[in-house]
Design a protein that fits this description.
This is ZYBA0S08-02630g1_1. It comes from Zygosaccharomyces bailii (strain CLIB 213 / ATCC 58445 / CBS 680 / BCRC 21525 / NBRC 1098 / NCYC 1416 / NRRL Y-2227). The protein has four helices and two strands. The chain has 161 residues and is mainly α. The termini are far apart.
Length: 161
């Protein structure tokens, strides 16, 4: 181009009308021209790049996530406060520990008592075993008496002979 003014359109000479006739056809130039929308987008990208992980992040989603995080923290604080009040109402952690230990002790004693009842020999069987033992002792004493009597009889027979 011989003109000193810049134009986004290039001129091409046509061969049929004549040697000096020119017709202009619209064509993009090699240098990209940034539009107003592109400029706004790039400004916002640079503005939010520090606060958002990427330019595609939604500020609404981020606000929602921050609200959810805040709500979770508030719920945790409420729970902690409720637990502290319950702890105070129960007399503190030492009393709760005593109560738990005493409850466990009672449960263990009940379990042991139940096992003892299950493995206890009924009184009838005890009396029966004692009487059998007494009979065995009586039988042994009787056998011993008979054995001693036979020995004494033999001694007497030996003396008499």
């Amino acid at each position: 181009m011989s003109d000193s003014s810049y134009s986004p359109f290039r001129s091409f000479p046509e061969s049929s009308p004549g040697p000096h006739a020119q017709k202009t056809t619209p064509q993009r130039c090699s240098k990209p021209v940034e539009g107003i929308a592109d400029e706004i987008f790039s400004n916002r990208r640079s503005q939010y790049s520090s606060t958002f992980p990427s330019f595609s992040s939604s500020p609404i989603r981020l606000q929602r996530e921050q609200k959810e995080l805040r709500d979770r923290r508030v719920a945790q604080q409420r729970t902690a406060h409720r637990d502290q009040n319950a702890l105070k109402a129960r007399g503190g952690s030492d009393n709760i520990e005593k109560f738990v230990m005493e409850s466990l002790r009672r449960q263990e004693l009940q379990r042991m008592s139940q096992q003892a009842e299950e493995h206890t020999i009924p009184m009838e069987e005890v009396e029966e075993l004692e009487s059998e033992q007494q009979e065995d002792l009586d039988d042994e004493a009787l056998i011993e008496y008979i054995a001693q009597r036979e020995r004494l009889e033999k001694e007497l027979d030996n003396m008499l002979e």
